Amino acid sequence: MNSREEWGSRLGFVLAAAGSAVGLGNIWKFPYMTGQHGGGAFLLIYLALVFTIGLSVMLAEFAIGRAAQRNPIGAFATLKGKLWPVVGFMGVAAAFIILSFYSVVAGWTIAYIFKMASGSLVGSADELGKAFGSFISDPVEPIIYHALFMGITVAVVLGGVQKGIERACKILMPMLFVLLIVLIGRAITLPGAEKGLEFFLLPDLSKVTAETFNGALSQAFFSLSIGMGAMITYGSYLNKKESLGKSALWVSSLDSGVAVLAGLLILPAVFAFGFDPSAGPGLTFITLPAVFAQMPGGAFFGLLFFSLLTVAALTSAVSLMQPIIAFFSDDKGWHPKAAAVIFGVVIFLLGIPSSLSLGVWSDVHIIREKGFLDSMDYIASNILLPVGGILISLFVGWVVADKMKEEVTNKGEAPFPFMGAWLFICRFVAPVAVAWILVSGL
Ligand code: PHE
């Protein structure tokens, strides 16, 4: 414990934290959430929440992590003790839940690499939709890919913080960015794409309801990887010289940048091909192959895209695994490698019902009308992360504010111009607004 690993540089840290944030949340979840919640109005509310509450909670997590140099549970215990480590426990529980279904969806992206390579993803938009439906409802095939993804995640975690994650993020994240831009060029020039651009970019405020806020808030927490301590853990590996405020701004901007690019790619194509924007979790997987079918070298672009998406999912999965492992190794004396293998298996098992809930177990409902996968997502994204965010804000704003002020200014050496605004958001705005959105969503 005395010689914790450290990030190689601030760029390495920012890219790794962005690697955690950018993942399926941006490219799979964001477009279908936007589609279900009315388009432009959702985007507007989403961005407003990201750059106020989201950014502040992220900075709060970085500061807690770096001040304590511990995993989320240990961090609260070191800084204050008493009941606060409960926040860390909630975070570790959220990590288990999220990773279990995340890995199932990431398994789909691996499967789509192979399907692109074998040329089996061809046909009309309608046929592509059917192909996706029959793939995810199969009782065996998606579970094999889910196992493969968890296996790769464990392997990366075993490789260590710096070598494994940092190196992958430095090269592959920029590639994903560039590829998205190339693909947008194709999507927005499809006939009929303007309707999708309009839907995404022109807010229709008459569609805003409590649901819109609730969806935007849960999406912001999920996409920024906040509310559960992943960013506390990453902050704990950061050295004392770097500016936390700038890092948080970079990570939030990169993350929402990728989400907006994904929206610009998927939604115009959805309208051009006549899909239903509120179709839900299949949206990206059905729309993209239809786009690839319309471009020269489509199979190559498709292969590259799903490969990069798998890597983006992997860097997020690793960050979900890290708080679990750090807790059991820092505080429980487990060997980190043993923890990685054992919890890899546990999370794999926990993911199986999520996968089956899209096929043979589709009439098993857990929360309201939701199946297992949707219920896991709901418990984590709509409850655990926002509640975690409220508690993290209160903790930083009221309980350890002085220590946190020191931390974000590197003991006074790096002035932080937004101190007043940040503390005001942590003390009042974030707890009240998040609680209000949560309650009105129930
Ligand atoms: N932010 C990740 C994504 O958008 C998912 C994630 C959530 C990762 C919570 C870590 C913690 O894909």
Automatic annotation (TrEMBL):
<feature type="transmembrane region" description="Helical">
    <location>
        <begin position="7"/>
        <end position="28"/>
    </location>
</feature>
<feature type="transmembrane region" description="Helical">
    <location>
        <begin position="40"/>
        <end position="62"/>
    </location>
</feature>
<keyword id="KW-0472">Membrane</keyword>
<feature type="transmembrane region" description="Helical">
    <location>
        <begin position="173"/>
        <end position="193"/>
    </location>
</feature>
<feature type="transmembrane region" description="Helical">
    <location>
        <begin position="378"/>
        <end position="400"/>
    </location>
</feature>
<dbReference type="InterPro" id="IPR047218">
    <property type="entry name" value="YocR/YhdH-like"/>
</dbReference>
<dbReference type="InterPro" id="IPR000175">
    <property type="entry name" value="Na/ntran_symport"/>
</dbReference>
<feature type="transmembrane region" description="Helical">
    <location>
        <begin position="338"/>
        <end position="358"/>
    </location>
</feature>
<feature type="transmembrane region" description="Helical">
    <location>
        <begin position="143"/>
        <end position="161"/>
    </location>
</feature>
<dbReference type="GO" id="GO:0016020">
    <property type="term" value="C:membrane"/>
</dbReference>
<dbReference type="InterPro" id="IPR037272">
    <property type="entry name" value="SNS_sf"/>
</dbReference>
<keyword id="KW-0812">Transmembrane</keyword>
<dbReference type="Pfam" id="PF00209">
    <property type="entry name" value="SNF"/>
</dbReference>
<keyword id="KW-0813">Transport</keyword>
<keyword id="KW-1133">Transmembrane helix</keyword>
<feature type="transmembrane region" description="Helical">
    <location>
        <begin position="421"/>
        <end position="439"/>
    </location>
</feature>
<protein>
    <recommendedName>
        <fullName>Transporter</fullName>
    </recommendedName>
</protein>
<feature type="transmembrane region" description="Helical">
    <location>
        <begin position="295"/>
        <end position="318"/>
    </location>
</feature>
<feature type="transmembrane region" description="Helical">
    <location>
        <begin position="213"/>
        <end position="237"/>
    </location>
</feature>
<keyword id="KW-0769">Symport</keyword>
<dbReference type="GO" id="GO:0015293">
    <property type="term" value="F:symporter activity"/>
</dbReference>
<comment type="similarity">
    <text>Belongs to the sodium:neurotransmitter symporter (SNF) (TC 2.A.22) family.</text>
</comment>
<feature type="transmembrane region" description="Helical">
    <location>
        <begin position="249"/>
        <end position="275"/>
    </location>
</feature>
<feature type="transmembrane region" description="Helical">
    <location>
        <begin position="83"/>
        <end position="114"/>
    </location>
</feature>
